UniProtKB/TrEMBL annotation:
Entry similarity comment: Belongs to the protein kinase superfamily.
InterPro entries per record: EGF-like_Ca-bd_dom, EGF_Ca-bd_CS, Kinase-like_dom_sf, Prot_kinase_dom, Protein_kinase_ATP_BS, Ser/Thr_kinase_AS, WAK-like
Domain Protein kinase: 136-415
Keywords: ATP-binding, Disulfide bond, Kinase, Nucleotide-binding, Serine/threonine-protein kinase, Transferase
Protein's recorded name: Protein kinase domain-containing protein
CC per GO annotation: plasma membrane
Gene Ontology molecular function: any one: ATP binding
UniProt: ATP binding residues: 165
GO BP term (any one): cell surface receptor signaling pathway
Extent of Basic and acidic residues compositional bias: 417-430
Superkingdom as given in the UniProt entry: Eukaryota
PROSITE patterns: EGF_CA, PROTEIN_KINASE_ATP, PROTEIN_KINASE_DOM, PROTEIN_KINASE_ST
Protein source organism: Oryza glumipatula
Length: 461
């Protein structure tokens, strides 16, 4: 009796032995598990109890399964479509980049680099430029001008660079771009910002230059944060080094390179206030139509020489004139277009030449650098500036002559002061200057005949 009561019936085994036990011990669409004194009906994955504990049914109804199946299929189709679209877009993007590279002369540049054994510049893909600038982050912007933007970047080798991203260019300039790159790659001067590389797989090519840490001469002279005194010897050094850089561009390369946009904002300074001339890309601007000229003048207002106002064409003597304006900025610490005592805007070069002709130009000089020992030096610099600012380009000195004159003044400033102290003839001549026969005399009628003053006043308003 005891053995009979303690024995267990395996309902699950009976279900397998005879179909009649399936109705006696139901487990519809489930898995039968034997237990002492009974059994359990467990549901498979994707099914749930039918509410009787003896059967299972699908998690979803037929209608729900249709909806789910349709949704999954639609999602899968959309995902596949997106993947295909991304692949097509990636191929098209690569094709565009290849086309830009070819259009911007990338293949020609490779050939030129091989044939001339140019190894001083790098051709960088746009992804490297984006990485260097944090995808053109606003925090990386160094400056914005009429021709484009300049970003501060960090290349993969941790080299700090300045990346110039220009605005749209015309096809004629694009054809000359590779030639310009080759020429710029040959420039090697301590006072010229070095070209490191370029990016060609974009619509408008980008140039990558060395980064100079201490800002621009314009900021140094005219910055609003503070106005610390600047000794004359530092100003002379900056002027001399800038002149040497322009002289090198004009005469020491395979062909004459015009700066075309020389101004204090394009002279960079390092930690020791050494000058580095930058942004000399206007050499391709051989001539300009009316609209291009107006845009150009907006960026060079106060620095562009009178002849260029008429001809719309730049020459090496255009750079000489612009240098004369920068020299005045160093001597007066006034901007090229400055506000006078009654807050009217005036041209620094025009005002200086008017006062120079009346021998009262000393009133414009920065009093911080005026004393008995420096006055003759400042007088020589004034005469040099006036020569650079002559209305006719042919009457101006070359940048090589300007550079040699500044080197002489810088080497013997006190000697010059002692030799010429009280000598009124210093107003017309100096060591290294043009001969007395070509001494500066400002003819206001020449300026008025080409309406320089009116043009400047109209543009600054």
């Amino acid at each position: 009796m005891f053995l009979l009561l303690s024995s267990d019936v395996d309902e699950c085994a009976l279900r397998k032995q005879d179909p009649k036990y399936e109705d006696m011990y139901p487990c519809r669409k489930g898995i039968c598990h034997n237990t002492p004194g009974g059994y359990l009906c467990k549901c498979k994955l994707g099914k749930r109890s039918d509410g009787t504990n003896y059967g299972c049914r699908p998690l979803h109804t037929t209608a729900e399964q249709v909806v789910i199946g349709t949704s999954v299929s639609a999602i899968a189709l959309m995902a596949l479509t997106c993947v295909l679209a991304m692949q097509v877009q990636r191929k098209r993007h690569k094709k565009d980049k290849d086309e830009y590279f070819k259009q911007n002369g990338g293949l020609k540049l490779y050939d030129e680099m091989r044939s001339r054994k140019v190894d001083t510049i790098r051709i960088l893909p746009e992804k490297d430029i984006k990485n260097a600038t944090d995808n053109y982050s606003e925090d990386r912007v160094l400056g914005i001008g009429g021709h484009g933007m300049v970003y501060r970047g960090t290349l993969d080798d941790n080299k700090e660079v300045a990346i110039k991203k220009s605005k749209v260019i015309n096809d004629e300039w694009r054809e000359e771009f590779v030639n310009e790159i080759i020429i710029l790659s040959q420039i090697n001067h301590r006072n010229i910002v070095r070209l490191i590389g370029c990016c060609l797989d974009v619509h408008v090519p980008m140039l990558v230059y060395e980064f100079v840490s201490n800002g621009t001469l314009s900021e140094f002279l005219h910055g609003t944060d503070h106005r610390s005194p600047i000794p004359l010897d530092i100003r002379l050094k900056i002027a001399t080094q800038s002149a040497e850089a322009l002289a090198y561009l004009h005469s020491s390369t395979s062909r004459t390179i015009l700066h075309g946009d020389f101004k204090s904002a394009n002279i960079l300074l390092d930690g020791q206030h050494n000058a580095k001339v930058a942004d000399f890309g206007a050499s391709a601007l051989k001539s300009m139509n009316e609209s291009e000229f107006i845009m150009f003048v907006q960026g060079t207002l106060g620095y562009l020489d009178p002849e260029s106002f008429i001809s719309h064409c730049l020459t090496d003597k255009s750079d000489v004139y612009s240098f004369g304006v920068v020299l005045l900025e160093l001597m007066t610490r006034k901007r090229a277009i400055y506000a006078n005592s009654i807050n009217e805007k005036e041209s620094l070069s025009y005002s200086f030449l008017l006062m120079f002709d009346q021998n009262i130009h000393r009133n414009m000089l920065d009093r911080e650098i005026m004393d008995k020992e420096t006055m003759v030096v400042l007088e020589k610099l004034s005469i040099l500036a006036a020569n650079c600012l002559r209305p006719r380009g042919d009457d101006r000195p070359t940048m090589k002559e300007v550079s040699e004159c500044l080197q002489m003044i810088r080497r013997h400033p006190m000697h010059a002061a002692s030799d010429h102290k009280g000598d009124s003839s210093a107003h017309h001549n100096y060591e290294g200057s043009p001969s007395p026969s070509t001494a500066v005399h400002f003819d206001e009628t020449i300026y008025k005949s080409i309406e320089t003053s009116r043009l400047v006043q109209d543009l600054v308003r």
